[in-house]
Amino acid sequence: MAVAQPKLEKENEDCSLLPLVHDIIKCMDKESQDVHQELAKLKAKIQEAREQISNMPGIDSSPQEQQQQLATLREQVHTKNQLLQKYKSLCMFDVPKAS
Amino acid sequence: MAAVAEKPTKERLLSVLDDLEVLSRELIEMLSLSRAQKLPQPGEDTQILELLVQRDREFQELMGVAQQQGKVHQEMQQLEKEVEKRDSDIQQLQKQLKEAEHILATAVYQAKEKLKTIDKARKGSISSEEIIKYAHRISASNAVCAPLNWLPGDPRRPYPTDLEMRSGMLGHMANLPSNGVNGHLPGDALAAGRLPDVLAPHYPWQSSDVSVGMLPPHHGNDFNLEPPGHNKENEDDVEAMSTDSSSSSSDSD
């Protein structure tokens, strides 16, 4: 878990837009010609984030709704397992094959 | 807050991203204007910056939530596959149970029909001995087949003749007059009883021999062809299915 947390933090920092904004402000202070380039980067990053969000699975519902759906699915699997177990424990008939 | 929490994560992420875009654009425009005009803004840029930072933090949190939801979604997909497999197993089991039910229903129905038939047969049961005796009687009287030595002109007939009928129980009960109703014998000869020896009726019951196995003397039910009082001494004929038993006939064809 300790290893996963720094990785998660790094991933979160990757999606932060503040470093790019900071770079733009620095270029503006320096009156550098790279301002336009940095602005383009910011736009591209925002667009990339939009596409990434559109492609991410499982975020069409809120976390609470998703947990409810998960609980329902688990209950379904449990119920059906019980049902199958119940019928398999009955005496089975040997169904003769139609000749 | 509850209303915000119920919004889908995707919607919230896109909303925050839009806010970030707008705020970053405003901040950059404000800074470029202030540098161009050389006029310091009264803390407005700070306010926007704070908002930007707050939105960025919110965006990062939401992205973390979205990643967690992605993992949960994978688990849900696994569970859905399991549910599909269980559904398929249940349907297969249902099909087998239906088949078994059909087979059992057919077997039970056939068994019931057989039991009905057995019950019906038991109610109408007849002793096999009686049937065999009856068959012997019929064949002994040459009712089904002519005797081997029968020739045209033989007065014997495969049916009871007039004399035999009148000699039997029915004849005695009805008290029929003795006349040659069947036309086989002249009425005078029949009435007088003067029959030639060759035409004298030889009834099976007139035999002096007694067949022990066939007709018990006290067996008095059913096919009592002989008149009461006649002895059953001629059982050899019956037993041997012989052609010796003859019936008197009044007509020689």
From TrEMBL, chain A:
Transmembrane spans: none
Xref: InterPro entries: Med7/Med21-like, Med9, MED9_metazoa
Keyword line: Activator, Coiled coil, Nucleus, Transcription, Transcription regulation
Pfam families reported in the protein's UniProt record: Med9 (PF07544)
Compartment list: Nucleus
GO biological process, one term: regulation of transcription by RNA polymerase II
Keyword Transcription regulation applies: yes
Recorded coiled-coil stretches: 25-52
Recorded GO MF terms: transcription coregulator activity
Cellular component, GO, one term: mediator complex
Function: Component of the Mediator complex, a coactivator involved in the regulated transcription of nearly all RNA polymerase II-dependent genes. Mediator functions as a bridge to convey information from gene-specific regulatory proteins to the basal RNA polymerase II transcription machinery. Mediator is recruited to promoters by direct interactions with regulatory proteins and serves as a scaffold for the assembly of a functional preinitiation complex with RNA polymerase II and the general transcription factors.
Similarity-based family: Belongs to the Mediator complex subunit 9 family.
Quaternary structure (record): Component of the Mediator complex.
Protein name: Mediator of RNA polymerase II transcription subunit 9
Native source organism of the sequence: Austrofundulus limnaeus (Annual killifish)
Gene: med9
From TrEMBL, chain B:
Coiled-coil features, chain-numbered ranges: 76-110
A GO MF label: transcription coregulator activity
Keyword Oxidoreductase: no
Tagged with keyword Nucleus: yes
Localization terms from the record: Nucleus
Key words of the record: Activator, Coiled coil, Nucleus, Transcription, Transcription regulation
Gene Ontology BP terms: regulation of transcription by RNA polymerase II
Domain of life where this protein originates: Eukaryota
GO cellular component assignments: core mediator complex; mediator complex
InterPro entries: Mediator_Med4
Comp. bias intervals (Low complexity): 242-253
Self-association and partners: Component of the Mediator complex.
Family the entry assigns: Belongs to the Mediator complex subunit 4 family.
Name of protein: Mediator of RNA polymerase II transcription subunit 4
Species: Austrofundulus limnaeus (Annual killifish)
Gene: med4
